[in-house]
Amino acid sequence: AEAEARGAGETLARHEAALLELARQKQEAAQAAYDKNMGYLNEAYANRSNLLQQNYNDALAQLQASYDSGARGVNQNADSAQQQAYINYMMSKRDLPQALVAQGLTGGMSESALAGMYNSYGNNRNTIDRGRNDSLATLLDTLNSNKSTALQNYNNQLSADDQQKMAYQLQLEQALANQSAEILQNKYDTLQNLDNTYT
């Protein structure tokens, strides 16, 4: 009877050891699956973050290129207008004395006409410069507004991604916790059944 009891005890110990080993392997497998899935998740969101950063940088580059192109056009138009105004002024200045003589204007009248022509040229230049500055300011305001919008969109997407990633992480952690609890419960239940059987 004593040998039989000892044999039963050894058998119980072997079964318990096998059960504990199986539970340990299951726990390791659950942890490995969690680690692998968490690695995939982190890698996927790191890649997505890099793509978002690249898209944001590309958007800024396009906005800057658009502004630079617009500014070049404004400056070219203004420079051309200034050049044309100067040519007109010089031609009028050249032709003015002959025109005044033809009209019989001399002395103070001649000087007054010359001053008026120069004043008109100055007014034209100022108008062109104001137009240039207004157009450049509008372009710059548009650039800054578009940059601000691009940054807001970028930050919104990053925030949404962070929330989504956290939700996935919680799902993985919950799944691991549930598996661990199930493995633990099964281990205890099986050990209890073994003990009851051998008892």
What can you see in these coordinates?
- By secondary structure, this protein is mostly helical.
- It is 97% helix and 0% strand.
- The chain contains two helices and no strands.
- It starts with a helix and ends with a helix.
- The mean pLDDT is 87.
- Uncertain runs: none
Query: What global shape is seen?
Result: rod-shaped
Gyration radius (Cα, Å) is: 43 Å
Helix run count: 2
Arithmetic mean pLDDT: 87
Query: Strand portion, in percent?
Result: under 5%
Main pleated sheet: none
Q: Tell me the distance between the termini.
A: 14 Å
Instruction: Bin the helical content.
Output: over 70%
Briefly note the structural class of the backbone. Answer: mainly alpha
Number of strands: 0
Elements, N to C (H/E): HH
Keywords:
0% strand, mainly alpha, single chain, 199 residues, 2 helices
In short:
By secondary structure, the protein is an all-alpha fold. Helix content is 97%, strand content 0%.
Topology of helices and strands:
Layout (H helix, E strand, L loop, with lengths): L1 H102 L4 H91 L1
